[in-house]
Design a protein that fits this description.
The complex is a heterodimer of chains A (382) and B (297). Chain A is of the alpha/beta class. Chain A is built from 12 helices and 15 strands. In chain A, strands 8-7-9-10-11-14-15 form a 7-stranded mixed sheet. Chain A has a 6-stranded mixed sheet with strand order 2-3-1-4-5-6, sandwiched between helices. In chain A, strands 12-13 form a two-stranded antiparallel ribbon. Chain B has a domain of 202 residues. Classes of the chains: A alpha/beta (382), B mainly alpha (297).
Amino acid sequence: MRKSLCSMLVAAMALSLGAQTPATVKIGWFGPETGDSALWGQAELNTVKMMANDYNAKGGITVGGKKVKVEIVAYDDKGDSVEAVNVVKRLISQDKVVAIVGAQGSGEAIPVAPIVNDAKIPLVASTATNPKVTVSDSGAVNSYVFRACFTDPYQGKVAAYFASQKLGKKKAAILMTIDDPYSTGLSQYFKENFEKAGGKVVSEVSYTSGEKDFRAPLTKIKAANPDVVFIPAYYNDVALASKQARDLGIKQLLLGGDGWPSDNLISLAGKSLEGCLFINHLDMDGAAAKPMRDEYKAKYNKNAELNSYMVHDALLMVVDAIQRAGTVNSVAIQKALTTCNLQGITGHIKIGANHDPVGKEAWLIKIVGPDMKFQEKFATAN
Amino acid sequence: MDQFLQQLVNGLSIGSIYALMAVGYSLVYSIMNFSNFAHGSVIMLGAYFGFYSLTALGVPFSAAFGIAIFGTAAIAVIIERLAYKPLRDRRAPFLYFIITAMGASIFIDNSVIATIGPTPKTFPPDLLPAFLQGAPLEWGALSVGRIDLTIFVVAAICLAVLMVFIDFTKLGKAIQATAYNMKASALMGINPDFVIILVFAIGGGLAGVAGVLYGMKYQVFPQMSAITLKSFIAAVFGGLGSLPGALLGSLLLALIETFVSGYLSTQYRDLFAFIILIAMLVVRPSGIMGKDAEDKA
């Protein structure tokens, strides 16, 4: 009797779920398809489309025992925070997506966070590394925002540790993008940790985004005569800055963060970055990345970018959460995301109390000729 | 002192690029009395012409430079014929010219974004002349990039040739006369249509030079035209319509920018540059070398 009641209940639940589970589940993506960081936005969009195709080729993903197709709804935010807010509102109210991936830049992810919180639609950011993406100014965790990447404090710590302990550098200079929270945040964490390790930041100069000429601030760096120059910026600015630095006779080692890795970096920078080092989220030439690297290359005849791997893991987290939740209800997906614990391409992702992955490894990469060669990896406490 | 000299060199190298761009704005303004905002897009096209001639067609650098100059001269004239001439024929108010120019600019920029894509490109160093490939030139603590030095020299030559042409040739006199009074010079037998085409061709050709040089110094990308707005400001600063004014305005603006960002902070750069610009225009509404006060649009 008891058993049959149970099975009836299960059947009733399955029926009601079945009624709620549509044939397709809509997942939103937004990022820059045009503008300065278009290369990365396009790489992300290509990847999520490729993954959706792969899921659907197998009949879809399993939600509560039923196969559901994945539909990606994508919008261009032009790398602009106002545009990002607009397209996220559209994803939520017009397209009624159950979850969102993307938000590669912290500058876009931070203003979007309160919107997804209010609408109760989970967002998994791919490469937004600023701490304020998941934890708001007041110190409260943004309950609906998660990320697949490690954070800037972590990255800054690794870069500072590496510069001072491993390379034995005493004096560092920093060139940052003053109006980009990613760049200013990373600079601050680098500085704190570098000075804690006994080093000194002898020059801290900046430029505004969109600027193409960095000679004036770089001349200040040259006059300060540092041992190493930390450039927490995106690849395009890095390429311009490194060329101009070499033109000004700055011969020191340049060090960077995860804004550097790009297929275009070395072709834009020429020889100016030879021997320089940066922190990355994975070894893009390594074994873990190979299946996706090959599939991406075969499909798009282009090399996968860092953002391809990061958004891959972000979407993986969403799909995993939907499957574990057994429903396409956004609130249930959020719950499942808080217990996310999976192996992605970019390492093991275990979501911690702040909605950031805990203990994710940072990889040190060196630029050698036309290649980006993996050196070593670190994992410290967050 | 070393730092001061280096910043001076930095400023001059930016200023020479501004000057090449600014004379294009000034030339057209002197004849047509409106700001040709499509000029920035023509500069951007010049950079792409040069880049693709070099990389896709595989022609030598000098030929690529030539293709860029003639290509942009042709484009500038085509824009004049297609977009501005119909307005002139209908004696449209100047505001319509400006709006049309902005429209042409947006059209060109977005055509490039749609067809070529927004990703920045860089001139492959091994395809540039041998002189440009070496290490920077150093005098003591002063270091000057080879491309920067080349740009300064090329810009100086172009502007000198242009000024000689305007002041000492018959065609140059025709341009001056038309700029002074189009109706009266037409009565004297100067065909205004011809002068206008000539001015657009010269401005366009200089846009080609500026585009290729800018692309070599920085990168080639569709949003370049927005950056050329700085050179428009320099032209206003120096006195729209005056060529020496455009040159002076460009160098001054670049030096102010460089010294403010070098000695104060980059955040203050545009603030100071524009305060000085506004103060200048309050004291002398026609710019440093502008001849008479008219509305600058």
